[in-house]
Write a structure and sequence with these properties.
This is ABC transporter substrate-binding protein. The chain is α/β, with parallel strands linked by helices. The radius of gyration is 22 Å and the shape is globular. It has helices at residues 2-14, 16-21, 35-50, 61-70, 84-92, 112-115, 167-178, 186-194, 207-214, 228-232, 263-274, 276-284, 299-304, 309-314, 320-337, and strands at 25-30, 53-58, 79-83, 96-97, 124-136, 158-160, 201-203, 220-224, 238-240, 248-257. The chain has 15 helices and ten strands. The longest helix is centred in the last third of the chain and has 18 residues, at 320-337.
Length: 340
């Protein structure tokens, strides 16, 4: 019996994480996207490692942030996956805490762009994507974002509506190209307004673009890299533009709920998600572009994702403060110049 007791004490000493977390529950708030794959590649493996239970809540950003606000006094969620801008909104509302990156063994592996996206220490990027122009390389040449408005091209262009995720970034880059890059985006919105009758459509869902390009109704459209795979399957030549002004895009981040009683466990889960192994698995399944710079991908996966140090460095993302402070103004200008 004495030997058995000694053995059990030794075992407990060797696995403090499992012992401490055995009865613990971690609640995370995430996008509804690809949850079956996330369960297999992230959630189940983490539960097996930590000996804890994961409760997963899904929904759109508005719903999930509203729930965090409603439960501010007694948080239900411990960790959330949100956009850069939503992370700043949550920080401004006092809903999240600083991330103790010293407790993240994989933090140093991240691309610089993902380490502190909003510059306030309140979030860590886990995936990002490029936004550029998919175009018919047999019909046109794209050297600049401004080429979309050339008389010979504009009648074959689809442009994202300002209310979509791709709208403001595409407008931002168009503004840079036109020399009208003020935060209110009035310059590019006015330029689009002048050409609104020529542009084929101001799209709201990127899924419609592949068919439009196949039917030769459009030759070009700004898209997020996550939509690129569908274009590569077309039987017409389509290329991904590298305009002289660069590419834009977006980033999703992980945040810790202020007042959570499970922050240490949340940090362990965050670190697991950011690990080279986990990020590689997610990338090879074409779920997320990796924020971890040590991830090595197959050629097929790399061609369909936002991948590599040079690409990460080239992204010109709209600062979150500008996005939050100007959203209402963008929509007002758009409705006045371009219409619904």
């Amino acid at each position: 019996m004495k030997e058995a007791l000694i053995a059990s004490v030794a075992l407990a000493a060797l696995s403090p994480l499992s012992a401490a977390a055995a009865e613990r529950t971690l609640t995370i708030s995430v996008y509804a996207f690809a949850q079956d794959d996330f369960k297999a590649l992230v959630y189940d493996p983490f539960e097996a490692q930590c000996g804890c239970k994961l409760v997963v809540e899904t929904g759109n950003s508005v719903e999930r942030l509203a729930k965090m606000e409603a439960n501010k006094a007694s948080p239900v969620v411990d960790l959330a996956a949100v956009s850069m801008a939503d992370a700043l909104a949550a920080a401004r509302a006092g809903l999240i805490d600083k991330v103790d990156t010293a407790k993240l063994s994989n933090f140093a592996k991240l691309h610089d762009i993902a380490k502190d996206p909003n510059g306030d220490g309140m979030s860590v990027g886990y995936t990002f994507y490029a936004t550029s122009i998919a175009y018919r390389s047999d019909k046109m040449t794209i050297d600049s974002w401004a080429d979309l408005l050339k008389p010979e091209y504009v009648g074959h262009v689809a442009f994202p509506n300002v209310t979509t995720n791709q709208g403001p970034p595409a407008l931002y880059m168009l503004g840079l190209a036109l020399g009208k890059d003020t935060p209110d985006l009035k310059g590019p919105i006015e330029a689009l307004g002048e050409k609104k009758d020529d542009i084929v459509t101001f799209y709201e869902k990127s899924s419609q673009l592949v068919q439009l390009m196949q039917q030769e109704e459009i030759w070009a459209a700004p898209i997020g890299r996550f939509s690129w795979a569908g274009f590569t399957k077309l039987d017409v030549p389509v290329a991904w533009a590298t305009p002289k002004e660069g590419q834009t895009g977006g980033m999703n981040v992980l945040v810790l709920t202020k007042g959570s009683k499970n922050q240490d466990l949340a940090l362990q889960f965050m670190d697991f998600w950011l690990s080279t192994e986990t990020q590689t698995k997610l990338a090879e399944k074409l779920i997320d572009s990796p924020a971890n710079s040590e991830v090595k991908l197959s050629e097929a996966a790399a061609n369909n994702l936002t991948y590599g140090e040079q690409t990460a460095k080239s992204l010109k993302l709209i600062p979150s403060a500008i996005a939050l402070d100007n959203r209402a103004g963008w929509l007002k200008s758009w409705n006045e110049k371009v219409g619904q």
